[in-house]
Design a protein that fits this description.
By secondary structure, the chain is α/β, with parallel strands linked by helices. Helices cover about 35% and strands about 25% of the residues. GO terms for molecular function: FAD binding. This is FAD-binding domain-containing protein.
């Protein structure tokens, strides 16, 4: 007789099978973070997901992201927390420097919610971990995208760019802040709210001035240059500057590079090195930092998750965590409700208060971190020194213990597997 190990010994819980005769099919648009996380949990709860990704392969570039709060609980349940720790960027914290590279203030790792967090990983590394976790159970369609959707009583008819047509029980948009699938379902109903900041991310060769510390440099006229270490021997760079929306994100890459060169030509510090690296660089991401405000996250048999539904912007520090938590909640509510309409409503009712909390950025963001004058930069650095001081941390901890106000870690994660097993 074959031996059996309990879930406690194996670290894995038995899957919950949804009470359908056949597995419901779900098409997910987007193979970054929210999509594969959703697919993992849908598979766990008895669904058959398919992921379509318009890129020809996984997008393995990208900058540092972090996972915290309830999202850390989710990745622990998924069994990938250790893999994320192994792929850690090794960043020791953030140093705020002047044009001579002298440190004016620093935030060591783990000492502030605005600095380096416990689980720091490159976005592409996390995408690879999630793909490896799901690829044997989930159908991936790379190099294709949804071009038309017809929501019918018995399912959703989907037309793909490559010409095929298929039917799915549900369709989920998980393809980012400027989701093309979202526009097919919701039109212009969701609003992309610009926050008055443009940011460009790219990768450059590591040099002798780079270390395991991230370095933040403020230049006059509200410009920031930020360099971060990675775990593959290169350096992740970014330029950011305050600006009203001007449509730069829609320009060809060559024109975007020209804008960066013009904007940062006299910024000083490491800017000349980074600008020189732009010409031969093809992994540049340039966009206006924005939030997505959607009055509803579902319509018929279609729904949204992650940045497509409620991007909080990188300024919140919670984009990845919110995508992971949202995917878990959406899958869990689908497991709890035989009627997808009830599931979508429960998903939104449970998650929307948390989303609104995360999207409520502190006063002065992003302007406070992008001072216009040298005096403003000096005041900003003094503020960082205060935040990092032991005295200030003790005072903050005292107030946090007495405060009843919610925090980014306040979301109570439902145990959908336990509830599902108990209901059988």
């Amino acid at each position: 007789m074959p031996s059996r190990q309990s879930p406690a010994k194996t670290g894995r819980r038995p899957p919950y099978h949804h009470p359908f005769v056949t597995k419901p099919t779900v098409l997910i648009a987007g193979a970054s973070i929210a999509g594969p996380t959703l697919a993992f949990w849908l598979t766990r709860f008895g669904y058959q997901p398919t992921i379509v990704e318009r890129a020809d392969a996984l997008r393995l570039g990208g900058q540092n992201i972090d996972i915290s709060g309830a999202a850390q609980q989710v990745v622990r349940l998924m069994g990938i927390e250790d893999a994320i720790r192994v792929a850690n960027t090794g960043e020791l914290g953030v140093r705020f420097v002047d044009e001579t590279n002298a440190t004016k203030a620093e935030l060591p790792k783990g000492e502030s919610s605005i600095g380096t967090r416990e689980l720091e990983i490159l976005r592409g590394d996390l995408a690879q971990i999630l793909y490896d976790l799901t690829s044997d159970k989930v159908e991936y369609l790379f190099g294709d995208q949804i071009t038309a959707l017809t929501d019918e009583e018995t399912g959703v008819k989907v037309t793909f760019q490559q010409g095929s047509r298929r039917r799915f029980d549900l369709v989920i948009c998980a393809d980012g802040i400027r989701s093309r699938t979202r526009s097919l379902v919701f039109g212009e109903e969701p609003v992309i709210k610009p926050l008055g900041l443009y940011t460009s991310y790219f990768t450059v060769p590591r040099t002798a001035t780079d270390s395991a510390w991230a370095r933040w440099y403020n230049a006059p006229r509200s410009r920031v240059v930020f360099l971060r270490p990675d775990n593959v021997g290169t350096t992740r760079a970014s330029f950011s500057f305050l600006s009203e929306p001007k449509g730069y994100e829609r320009l060809p890459m060559a024109e975007q590079k020209a804008i960066l060169k013009q904007t940062f030509a006299d910024a000083g510090w490491e800017a000349p090195r980074l600008l020189a690296a732009l010409d031969d660089n093809t992994d540049i991401y340039f966009d206006g930092i924005s939030q997505v405000k959607a009055p509803r996250w579902s319509k018929g048999r279609c729904a949204m998750v992650g940045d497509a539904a409620y991007c909080p912007s990188p300024l919140s520090g919670m984009g990845t965590s919110l995508a992971i938590v949202g995917a878990y909640v959406l899958a869990g509510e689908l497991a709890q409700h035989a009627d997808y309409r009830q599931a979508f409503a429960a998903y939104e009712n449970r998650l929307r208060p948390f989303v609104e909390e995360v999207q409520s950025l502190p006063p002065g963001v992003p302007w406070v971190a992008h001072p216009k004058t040298r005096l403003g930069i000096a005041v900003f650095n003094a503020g960082i020194r205060l935040i990092s001081s032991r005295f200030a941390q003790r005072i903050a901890a005292l107030f946090n213990r007495k405060s009843d106000s919610p925090t980014n870690d306040s979301f109570v994660l439902p145990d959908y597997e336990k509830a599902a097993i108990a209901s059988r």
